[in-house]
């Protein structure tokens, strides 16, 4: 029994199976998570530690070194790097690709908890694994001309965040900026001395009073009451009434020794949007969430919010729109490619029935590919869709070869036996017998080429694994359907007239085949000439390869770019803000800019940030006359000419995110090591000057970071006789 005999005998079962898998693939496509890139957990953990306002040298000894020792002892750790600043430490823990990152994160957290006795009690420590889920997928700004920053922050915390947390797939909502209410207690030294009190006693009394505790349950009047003792301080009168001490039976209250007034907490973070102070709301998704679906659900939740009058709630970043447009563009390219190939086939095959076979095989192959992608945990992203787009031509080619070769065999059998349509099945059998080894060989050879891509290491392997897996599935399914579904459908849709027309067409075009045969015989007389021609082509290829630029990601216009900035070390937040307001003025004069947000003292992602640095996220309009590179070049010229003291860097968002996740924020980094810090800094400056002379380099930094000035007071003991 031949392969086609088996397929034809079980035609109903075979068609039912293909139909079910194709429909399942379509359903899974609309249900699979949609993201720009594959869901990758990078082999890197980050530890952020905060210990108030400690100087860098003490932070290095008390916090950084102990944490480095703890992290270095965790199995699988390849390197540990740290950045220590005033009161803060960022430690990057590098792992090997293939490491179970979530498990290593849990082990690191447990060891930090076990070693907390060697760390200051005031230190707060956070650990996080690096993935695309660390960065926000959507961002909104809350501004107002009438409401205070305290009121805006309260709206964001108690009205907006609870509503958005209900959206499925949202991991957390980060609120940045705004002011926090607090009471300022200004003590009078003279009054403290008169009552023989200290400032610490006043602070302790307020802290002890500002508590709420349960005293038990009370059964009364057929109900159980929870008994609470509340000393929470809600206004200035409550703080004024706190008793600090009792002198001679007379209570000394806070109002007797201090002045209490409402104020806001000191903050070294500043956020703006559209030139105004703003509260920024960033939405972080769960690793398995669909960015596009979450974006739609968040937009729906935002439309239901009823904010106070005067509050403006605007979007300054939406990754789902960019992903959706990228996915649609890739999908439309696939559909357009199929349409063009169909037109070409129609011109040469001249049979709408054969086009119907192609129109069924190609979508079926693509739909069934999504079934297998779902089984291995892949998502819909530009890498998987790119793999399908690359495989479409091969899918069509397999089916064409089988059908065309079937007609050749049919013609020979018809001429030999004067048979009509009854000769089609034997023709298919003989055609498959002849082509099956070639189809299997060509399919497997293409599959084998893609297999190594799935095992590449590093960032390249993480991205291209999805591409190679998609192509492997598509090619294997295409190979199977080309030798089963294609001939089976041909027996259903082809009529006697189509067969006769195809045979007649072969007879008419046989003269072209004879002409081609004569041409090839003449060329083969000079077969040795192929060797120098091949060598010339090889040499030209090598030459061009050395002159073609290389990038990890293809050049594209994301419509969003990041402007990172650093003011001189030690610059105050107020002075940094003054300089940045000039940048905001520049941005508002650029017609291509749709919106932007600015962070000072904090950044997008999970990083250590000083008050003198931060970033802008700038969103451009979809319809504009200049490309994103031209806009960036224009902004760079204006900022560098008006604010030479600022160190700025530009980059499109996706490449900036990938660089941050891999701990390589710059495209090229040169590391200089040594025990003499002065010599290292000197060489760093020399290398930076050399790099600036390289053509194409626009941003170069010597890597020397100064924490800023410090005031050191040393008390002296004075002895009195």
Note down, in words, how this protein is organized.
Helices cover 51% and strands 19% of the residues. It has 721 residues and is of the alpha+beta class. β2 and β3 form a beta hairpin. The relative contact order is 0.10. Among the domains are: 99 residues, Alpha-Beta Plaits, CATH 3.30.70.1430; 84 residues, Multidrug efflux transporter AcrB TolC docking domain, DN and DC subdomains; 106 residues, Alpha-Beta Plaits, CATH 3.30.70.1430. The longest helix has 36 residues. It contains 22 helices and 20 strands. The mean pLDDT is 82. The strands form 6 sheets. The chain has a 6-stranded antiparallel β-sheet with strand order 14-13-18-19-17-20. A 4-stranded antiparallel β-sheet has the order 2-3-1-4. A 4-stranded antiparallel β-sheet has the order 6-15-5-16.
User: What's the total helix number?
Assistant: 22
Sheet with most strands: 6 strands, antiparallel
CATH architecture of one domain: 2-Layer Sandwich
Given the helix and strand composition, which structural class is it?
A: alpha+beta
Find the count of extended strands (DSSP E, 2+ residues).
20
Report the end-to-end length measured between terminal Cα atoms: 118 Å
Helix content: 40-55%
| Unreliable runs | none
Task: Please name the CATH topology of one domain.
Answer: Alpha-Beta Plaits
Computed Rg:
35 Å
Average of pLDDT: 82
Give the overall shape: elongated
CATH class of one domain: Alpha Beta
**Order of strands in the sheet with most strands:** 14-13-18-19-17-20
* CATH homologous superfamily title of one domain: Multidrug efflux transporter AcrB pore domain
